[in-house]
Amino acid sequence: MGRWAFMKSDIGANRRTMTDCKFLFSNGVITSSPDVPPVATLLQSHPGAYTTTRTHSDGACILFWERHLRRLSNSARILLSRDPRLLFKPEKSELSLPPSLVESSAWDSAVESLVKDSVDQVLPIALREGLRKEGEELAITALVSGNVEKLRGMESASGSDSPAEMLDVYVHLAGYVALAFDRPEGAARLAVVGRGRSVAEAKYSDWVRLRKPLERLRPTSVTELLLSNDGDHLLEGCLTNFFVVRRREGKGVGENPYEVQTAPISDGVLPGIIRQLVLEYVFPLYIHFDLDTYIS
């Protein structure tokens, strides 16, 4: 098959250096260090869809923010329609969702507005407080969680079925130092450990809990765990999308000598932000793109 290499990004829930600078915005209340839990604790404590990005240029902008907002609202919609328990996590009774809520055309704009407004409130404060060390950015995790009590209130009241009325939004900020991939410690070391995620098209907080048994299997030298349903077709990492960059064999004259491989969405992988950016970058360069990651 020729030589191949792993390609990933430091954006999202990848391994990175986190510092003690932390803020949490929830239901209009801002909490700062040391009372803010680690982001993994927050995600394991609340159901829902989430996304993680970071600031850039000393907090001047948020990387791919509009893409993250769209992916977050889409993940929440997928959970609502396919497995509401991953969004609400009710303890006892079955959920009764108003049909108009699931099919609401206002869903995306409502969710994106909720998250954007929350980030706009806490980010300036986090930047102004000056708790970051020199060279740090801020990792931003936004979690949209269904509130069962609010949902029941909507069921008993007549009127609007706005998504905003049954969702809680949590925004977690933490100081961030990106790993440098031009250093030996920045290289990826991989191991295949488990089957693909359920409802893989959505990014949801319960996966943080579900992947813990897999993390216990991770050798100390391995930086990312890969998922596969058969041991041959590689789907994605526990934390990242997965790409293979390899030199092609038997290419035609004038053809690009490299190709990029990744699993198709239909195989059960997250439509990640970096995945889409790689696709957009590769096509104009006439690099062959293969929607498969079969490694023998």
Automatic annotation (TrEMBL):
Task: Give one Pfam family, short name only.
Answer: Aminotran_4
GO molecular function annotation: catalytic activity
Recorded hits in Gene3D superfamilies, A to Z, give: 3.30.470.10, D-amino Acid Aminotransferase, subunit A, domain 2 (3.20.10.10)
For this entry, the protein name equals Uncharacterized protein
Lineage of the source organism?
A: Eukaryota, Viridiplantae, Streptophyta, Embryophyta, Tracheophyta
